[in-house]
Amino acid sequence: MLHSGNGKEMSEDCLSGSPQDTGVARMAPSDTDTEPSTMVFSSSHSLRLKYMSLGVLVLQTTSLVLTMRYSRTLREDGPRYLASSAVVSAEVLKILACIVLVFRESNFSVPTMNQLLKEEIVNKPAETMKLAIPAGIYTLQNNLLYVALSNLDAATYQVTYQLKILTTALFTVSMLGKRLGSFQWLSLLLLMAGVTLVQWPTESGEVSEQKVLSAGSQFVGLMAVLMACVSSGFAGVYFEKILKETKQSIWLRNIQLGVFGFMFGLAGMMVYDGQRVRESGMFQGYNTITYTVVVLQALGGLVVAVVIKYADNILKGFATSVSIITSAVISYFLLEDFNPTSLFFLGSLLVIAATFLYSYKRKPVSISAIKV
After folding, report:
1. What is the pTM of this model?
2. Average pLDDT of every residue of the chain
């Protein structure tokens, strides 16, 4: 899902074709002697691509969340890096990456690329300005995710952030006029129930100042995630609608999003962190972990856009499930900032079930099966 690393929600089919488009269906017919071996080879290759896609999806989702959480809780001498600065840096890196991809699509010709950028971006200001709305919302969302992971452990964040399925579904119905099936509505109910259980406060006899501060911090994190889910759903569906109305390359669209995102991000950084930037510079507090977070946020979404065509809905459900479980395990054993409860496990199971159920597509009844 594109615009950047963390979730920018839109239909994967719009980004890279049908998830089942693995190349098998496009095979040219061959003679009967070679067809079986060709099919076996193609099926084996397709299977490898699917499992590679699963690995990439899990790695990107989990690594971004865990490294971002670690970077926001790491105690070091000196100031902590500015989240607003990291968002701006990620936008710049994403623009550069998309320019390289457009350069590749232009057969590595600089004049051809310049002409394409001029025709599709500079000479079409009205089309370009349409991207200002989702770009601004995406910039807000990225900043909110830093706030969320500064106040929530990675596992709780991962589960709660699945509410983006609910917001995306509601905006898809209201903005694109799509209809949801009964299984999808049921999955949304399960999703809300699961997130509610995960966020349900645990009973404790003692009330200390530390617990009050922890509850306040969790509330801030929860509000940040909820706002990010709403912004993710709206911006993703809006972006999908724009993609369906035009035939521009997805990389060109992301350059436009990135330029607006950079401008909004830079303005936000100067408004909220301007004093600190003037005192210690934009890159204060940066270290290896910070640069890793920036790279994952900038390039993660682009990598997923490339591999998502090989991952069907079941595989994407598995990726979400494995990512949640991995985040919980690493948060408990390595980051040591997560204490699982029975409510968390029950809520996580409901969320994982909802993810699979939302992607479930009922097969039509075969005509031959009902003949008498």
Report:
1. 0.79
2. 81
